[in-house]
Amino acid sequence: MTKKSALVEKQFSQFNCAQTVFSLFAKDLGLDEKTALKISSGFGGGMNCAETCGAVTGSYMVIGMKHGHFTSDPKAKTKTKLLMKQFNEKFKAAHKSLICKELTGYDISTPEGAAAANAERIHDTRCTKFIKTACDILEEGF
User: Fold this and answer.
1) What's the CA dihedral at 33, 101, 130, 22 to 10 degrees?
2) Do 87 and 52 touch, CB atoms closer than 8 A?
3) What are the φ and ψ backbone dihedral angles of 52, each rounded to 5 degrees?
4) pLDDT tens-digit profile of 24-46?
5) Please, which residues bridge with residue 52 across strands?
6) Which residues pair with 99 in a beta bridge?
7) How do residues 98-107 score in pLDDT, each as one tens digit?
8) Which of 20, 40, 41, 88 is the most buried (most CB within 10 A)?
9) d(CA 56, CA 53)
């Protein structure tokens, strides 16, 4: 377990999955926590449609802030894409998917799915694992 993943439960008790990942790395990226929380606020729950996991999209923001490009330089674009691909491979090796509804077993974008996920405490039992994995991957090599 890395330093950031040790902080997941505290942060995730207050914020969504994307916010948790991105805000835990904010200081390292030269951002204040409040800005990171605002930027990532709409990405939790698979962007509120149970698609790409918020821990993954939060990680993409970390990779983009650290290694992203702001020019049309093809080498810079290639590096960012490669890092995203490597992250995806490591996350999928650990959890078999990048998709929220596949990872959790619930479509939390529907009222019924959200209620069932809450009843099963999915956020506590599964989502924290996905967030910790994302933090571990980022701290170990990104």
Assistant:
1) -20
2) no
3) -60, 125
4) 999 999 999 999 999 999 999 99
5) 99
6) 52
7) 999 999 999 9
8) 20
9) 5
